[in-house]
Amino acid sequence: MKLFYACSASTCVVLILLLLLYPVILSFIRSKSPKFEIYYHSVIALGLSFYISMMLLLLSLILPINMTVTILPWTNTDVFDMDISLQFDLYSVMFMPVALYVTWQILEFAYTYMHADPQINRFFKYLLIFMTAMIIFVTANNLLQLFIGWEIMGIMSFLLIGWWHGRADANIAALQAMIYNRVGDIGLIYAMAWFAIIHNSWDIQHIFQLPQNEKINLPLIALIIAATGKSAQFSLHPWLPSAMEGPTPVSALLHSSTMVVAGIFLLVRMNPLMEFNPTILTICLCLGALTTFFSALCALTQNDIKKIVAFSTSSQLGLMMVAIGLNQPDLAFLHICTHAFFKALLFLCSGSFIHSLNGEQDIRKMGGMLYLMPITSSCFTLSILSLMGVPFMTGFFSKDTILEAMSASYVNIWAITLTLMATSFTAVYSLRLIFFVLMGRPRTKPVSTMNEHDPYAIKPLVRLAVASIITGCLLVHYMVPPKMPVITMPPILKLAALIVSLIGFVIALGLAFMANKQLKPKPPSGPHHFSNMLGFFPTIIHRFIPKIILTMAQKIASKMIDQTWLKKTGPKAASNINKPLATTTSNVQRGMIKPYITLFLLTLTIAGILVYFTIF
Amino acid sequence: MLRARFDENKNEKDMVKATKMLRAGEEEFWANQHPQPYIFPDSPGGTSYERYECYKVPEWVLDYWHPSEKAMYPDYFSKREQWKKLRMQSWDKEVAQLQAETPADGPKTEALPPARKEGDLPPLWWQFVTRPRQHPT
Q: Are residues B59 and B120 in the same domain?
């Protein structure tokens, strides 16, 4: 049975990788492909990959076996062994169909969104290469394979954010993503080096067999840094809102559903190392709470629809980190899966609005979309309800469970307060989105091309909307959590998340209906300014650190080099050394008798002493 | 309003006082400006500004097309050499008109003058008509 499972599972993954890479290889073989050829191949490849991954998932549900399969030996030396091996556990087997389904819908949507782009074939190739990297990352059983998938995802993120490379802002955003991810990669590389030196293995199963009393704080902190970079936690988060410069399908796939959860996925994978380490868990909890609150605060005052959704993503990633900090990695993983659906749907609906309004992204210039695009508006509303954690939507099953676990556990009140406030802010900016985008009268330019006749634009939205309703229930029903979740708690704790969301919703509704008069404009208040400027974090970090480095570089280049070579070691140094010597020597020889006699007697005395010691 | 207060004091003769008032006005303007002013998507600073610059290719690239690619558009390329000759012929006249009409201390606006004589082309006409599309097809 195990052999059958191993063969089937490894065959499935290899087939998926081959299917995903087939259109890419085809494009290299053929010198010039027709415009949408890669799209047709990609959609078929993704559809087939999804069904194969579903077969693997069903097989894993019937035969619940956790297994690693070694495909090929890669490097085998006396001290270090490394194989190409795949891991089939709950996380990899469940995440693959989720990621493939979301990618499939996004690719279909991209056919409409990127229809006018001359390089659409290249766009789909990049997305397929990214998906391949994601599969490699998720199924990796050793750190090197994981690192390869991690890095390829980073590179594709860079290429896709800078898709419209004629824009300076897009290039800046791509560089920002690359550099922030690089800072995080230092953590991953450090952890890999530590495991290689201390433990002599990169195999995840071997790493989990480290003794309990082993001091592994340093590599775990390094892994947290890696997750901070990739998953846009506080301090390495500014790249995520900037990454909205890329096309909306890229934002929907990479920067909400798949790539940004890679850091959280890494920590979920490495959770056996962290589960008995209270220091590391506390760091994760506090970092996650801070991230979720800060991102939700920043989302309150943004006016770009994609930036609001980006901050919402960052806030949910913080919530996933909180779940890891509560020692509930399965809840974090559940939230990864459910979040992928409703966040991708949210982005695709936003993209549909933007495309219909000829590139308008400011919510102050949208409005009345409920009447103009009813199907898209309905899907948008469903995704927002799921995001808010409305009971029995997809987001409810994961988000509410995390908040219940948090309320019922013995964590510090600061983390709970921040997380509940962030939940309330989620309701506020969600209502703000609905109010500005869907309700009221249109504030847009009168465009007559707005319609919902294109099936390639509507069907992906409807499919993702259905997934945003039913997937939570299905996942919770079939996923057996390895750790016992919190079951009994006082009703107030059970309902805390719901009450807080409701309070936020009602307050936001009240504020929105108060803002129907045009009053005299006032300067922005302190909190509004703080939130609008994203906490001044990018302003300070992006100017302060480069300013220090550039000032130091200027001092080195303009002063220190000249000073070193000219004054300290060069011609001036020669004169500085020789001048006192010359001055002293010439001062001695001034033609006066006394110094000459003194010198004569001194020389005589020294000569006498030398002769005395030589003879005797 | 700030503009009304500016107009009231615009005839201030005391330069020290005027400088101080101007500075105070600029500080008030800076403090009261909108934190996120609306920018049209295609305007500088907008979300679609220069988005398609990477697809905008100058027309001289057409000279470097392979003959098999040029054969796909025979009508255009058969007339292209004639158009190049017309451009060369009118170039000196366009430059002369621009030099004559440009003020000594430099042009005041980016607007180009129209053709003044019958039979002449407007200045930089060829660059204008062969400019790339705004949005790619």
A: yes
CA distance A163 to A127: 12
Q: Which residues of B are less than 8 Å from A362 in CB distance?
A: 38
One domain for residues B64 and B21:
no
> What is the rounded CA–CA span in Å between residue B110 and residue B31?
33
What is the pLDDT of chain A when averaged over all its residues?
A: 91
Q: What is the pTM of this model?
A: 0.88
Q: Which of A265, A296, A292 is nearest to A98 (CA)?
A: A265
B17 and B82 fall within a common domain: no
Contact A406, A479 (CB under 8 A): no
CA angle A602, A607, A613 (to 5 degrees): 130
Give yes or no for a contact between A345 and A379, defined as CB atoms under 8 angstroms apart: yes
Domain ranges of chain A: 542-613
Ramachandran quadrant class, A589 (left: phi over 0; alpha: psi -120 to 50; beta: rest): beta
Q: Which helix (H) or strand (E) holds A57?
A: helix A37-62
User: Which residues in chain B are closer than 8 Å to A117, comparing Cβ atoms?
Assistant: 136
Q: What are phi and psi of A86, to 5 degrees?
A: -115, 145
Dist CA B115 CA B108 (whole Å): 18
CA A179 to chain CA mean position, Å = 12
More confident: A390 or A75 = A390
CB contact set of A199 (below 8 Å; sequence gap of 6+):
A206, A207, A210
Report pLDDT for A412.
83
Cβ–Cβ gap B55/A533 under 8 Å: no
Q: Would residue B44 count as lying in a domain? A: no
pLDDT in tens, A237-295: 999 999 999 999 999 999 989 999 999 999 999 999 998 899 999 999 999 999 999 99
DSSP state, A437? Answer: I
| Domain with B23 in it | 1-32
The nearest CA of chain A is from the CA of B50 a distance in Å of 5
Q: Does one domain contain both B62 and B99?
A: yes
Contact A174, A158 (CB under 8 A): yes
Query: Does B124 fall in a domain?
Result: yes
Expressed in angstroms, the distance from the first to the final Cα of chain B is 48
Residue A233 and residue A287 in contact, taking contact as beta carbons nearer than 8 Å: yes
Residue matched to tokens 């409807």: A462
Whether residue B22 sits in one domain with residue B84? no
Residue B126 and residue B61 share a domain = yes
Tell me: do B64 and B17 sit in the same domain: no
Alpha-carbon gap: B43 to the closest alpha carbon of chain A (Å) = 12
Q: Which of A46-60, A128-142, B30-44 has the lowest mean pLDDT?
A: B30-44
User: Are A202 and A148 within 8 A, CB to CB?
Assistant: no
* Alpha carbons within 13 A on the beta-carbon side of A10: 16
DSSP annotation string for B51-120: TTGGG---GGGGGGS-HHHHTT-HHHHHHHHHHHHHHHHHHHHHHHHHHHHS-TT--SSSPPP---STTP
Q: Which residue in B36, B53, B55 is closest to A532 by CB distance? A: B36
**Candidates A361, A364, A524; nearest CB to B47:** A361
CB–CB of A362 and B38 under 8 A? yes
What pLDDT was estimated at residue A247? 96
Q: Do B22 and B65 belong to one domain? A: no
**Beta-carbon-side half-sphere exposure of residue A515 (alpha carbons within 13 Å):** 12
